[in-house]
Design brief:
91 residues; mainly beta; two-stranded antiparallel ribbon
Length: 91
């Protein structure tokens, strides 16, 4: 599961998905200056938890950016890779 936060507020939650397969989902974020945070969660012993080093995972599956969003649509592609870390592209 992935959650999207805009300016500290939860704006979207994805369906449960396999971490080993690519997936996509859409959400709305406010136009203008925005602090965006995208967090991947893992299901561990029946509880969803942030996929972070603090929770004993190999990497932090968190992407944060402060940006002015002015267009109607953006596509953010994020890869959480154990060997390469977090990479992201915004179009």
């Amino acid at each position: 599961m992935t959650k999207v936060f805009a300016n500290g507020e939860l704006v979207a939650t994805s369906e449960q998905h396999s971490e080993s397969n690519p997936f996509s989902f859409s959400c709305e974020i406010p136009k203008g200056e925005c602090q965006l945070k995208i967090v991947n969660y893992a299901l561990y012993n029946g509880t969803w938890e942030e996929h972070t080093v603090a929770n004993d995972y190999s990497i932090d599956c968190v992407y944060e950016i402060a940006q002015k969003f002015t267009k109607k649509a953006y596509r953010i592609t994020i890869v959480f890779d154990v060997n390469k870390g977090v990479t992201a592209k915004i179009k």
